[in-house]
């Protein structure tokens, strides 16, 4: 599984970071970013929950 955050859509709610801090972090500007584009298998469920919980739907799975 691969993920990325559309920085033009993200508004910095931080839900992804709350749900999966091993994959997501916040930039200095307060917006989410994926720390790795390839998600480890053991974090896929939490990552999918973060994708579903994003209020702006800014996280994309590829």
Mean pLDDT score, rounded?
Answer: 97
Q: Walk across the major sheet and give the strand order.
A: 1-4
Can you count the helices? 2
Radius of gyration: 10 Å
Commentary on this structure:
Residues 1-29 form the 4Fe-4S ferredoxin-type domain. InterPro entries: 3Fe4S_ferredoxin, 4Fe4S_Fe-S-bd, Fe-S_cluster_ET. GO terms for molecular function: 3 iron, 4 sulfur cluster binding; electron transfer activity; iron ion binding. With 62 residues, the protein is of the alpha+beta class. It contains two helices and four strands. It is globular, with a radius of gyration of 10 Å. The chain starts with a strand and ends with a strand.
Features:
19% strand; 4Fe4S_Fe-S-bd; alpha+beta; 62 residues; metal-binding; transport; Alpha-Beta Plaits; two-stranded antiparallel sheet; electron transfer activity; iron ion binding; single chain
Outline:
Its cofactor is [3Fe-4S] cluster. With 62 residues, the protein is α+β, with helices and mostly antiparallel strands. Helix content is 24%, strand content 19%.
Fold topology:
Elements: E1 3-5, H1 15-19, E2 24-26, E3 32-34, H2 44-53, E4 59-61
Antiparallel strand pairs: 1-4, 2-3
Function: Ferredoxins are iron-sulfur proteins that transfer electrons in a wide variety of metabolic reactions.
Cofactor: [3Fe-4S] cluster
Protein name: Ferredoxin
């Amino acid at each position: 599984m691969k993920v990325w955050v559309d920085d033009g859509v993200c508004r910095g709610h931080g839900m992804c970071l709350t749900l999966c801090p091993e994959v997501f972090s916040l930039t200095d500007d307060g917006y989410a970013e994926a720390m790795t584009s390839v998600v480890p298998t053991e974090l896929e469920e939490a990552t999918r929950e973060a994708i579903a919980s994003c209020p702006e739907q800014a996280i994309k799975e590829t």
